[in-house]
Design a protein that fits this description.
Structural class: mainly alpha
Mean pLDDT: 85
Distance between the termini: 63 Å
Largest sheet: none
Number of helices: 5
Strand content: under 5%
Number of strands: 0
Low-confidence stretches: 132-136
Order of helices and strands: HHHHH
Helix content: 55-70%
Length: 136
């Protein structure tokens, strides 16, 4: 009455697949390096050389090669750049904590503090420029 299944199930594990598998640690390293590289681009745009050098060291440690440094400017307001950098540092902190990378976690937390301080000391008119358009 029923015809037997002739092909392997799509639900069977693909252990014999011939593509490379990455471990959770490797995936977290890639993700952390990406967040730190994005933070490096914003940090370079803000002109924070020493902080950028420290971030570049961590990206190089994770990737095994020095990162490309940001050369172009977006003409974004400094307050918007500090908010973006704060968010990127927060993402890096979450991933660094997840993979128990103390060095990257401390660096990310320090960058979050620095950008929070920069936003707090920014004039009120530039801090308000980051409001969402159309949000009422």
């Amino acid at each position: 009455m029923y015809e037997p299944i002739r092909t392997p199930s799509v639900h069977s594990p693909a252990d014999d697949a011939d593509y490379p598998h990455r471990s959770r640690e490797e995936e977290l390293d890639i993700q952390l390096a990406g967040h730190l590289a994005a933070l490096l681009a914003v940090t370079d745009e803000l002109g924070l050389g020493a902080a950028g050098d420290r971030i570049a060291e961590q990206v190089a440690r994770l990737r095994g090669a020095p990162p490309a440094r940001h050369a172009a400017l977006t003409d974004a307001a400094p307050a918007a750049l500090h908010r973006r950098a704060h968010a990127l540092a927060g993402r890096a902190l979450v991933v660094a904590a997840s993979r128990a990378d103390t060095t990257a976690a401390i660096l990310s937390a320090q960058r979050m503090d620095a950008h929070t301080e920069a936003l707090a000391s920014a004039p009120a008119d530039t801090a308000a420029s980051g409001q969402l358009v159309g949000a009422h």
